[in-house]
Amino acid sequence: MQEVFQDIDTAKVGMIDELLKESGIPTMLKNFTGGSNITSVPIPSLYPTIFVLDDSQVNEARELIEEFFAAKPVEAAEWNCSHCGESVDGFLSECWSCQHPKES
Q1: Domain ranges of the chain
Q2: 21: left (phi over 0), alpha (psi -120 to 50) or beta
């Protein structure tokens, strides 16, 4: 078991953990339930951390993490809801106003 990622931001750690799990890499989280939030002074030993359980998958996990952070965000054009006519941000798959799904 080896550490592959650590960050003070639990949302970022959770996102990376899901990425690894979806890629078939079993992980274990340490300090994920708020340990880094118990003090206003950042203490790296309390940051949420991801460990890969199988040492043979450590390099693959690190490559996936590196690729994730190197990827440029995809910009999507705004669209108008066919149900209520509202203008909706392109990254949303349903209307923020009426929850009608985006049409293909």
Answers
A1: 2-70, 73-104
A2: alpha
Quote the pTM value: 0.66
Between CA 18 and CA 71 the distance in angstroms is 17
Beta bridge partner(s), residue 51: 3, 28
The Cβ of residue 49 has, within 10 Å, a number of other Cβ atoms equal to 20
Angle at 17 between CA 92 and CA 96, to 5 degrees: 15
Instruction: State CA 104 to chain mean position distance.
Output: 25
* Beta-ladder partners of 88: 79
58-77 pLDDT, tens digit per residue, is 999 999 999 999 998 878 89
Residue with tokens 């995809």: 74
CATH topology (fold) of 2-70:
Alpha-Beta Plaits (3.30.70)
The region, left, alpha or beta by phi > 0 then psi within -120 to 50, assigned to residue 95 is: beta
What confidence tens digit (pLDDT) does each residue in 21-36 have? 999 999 999 988 755 5
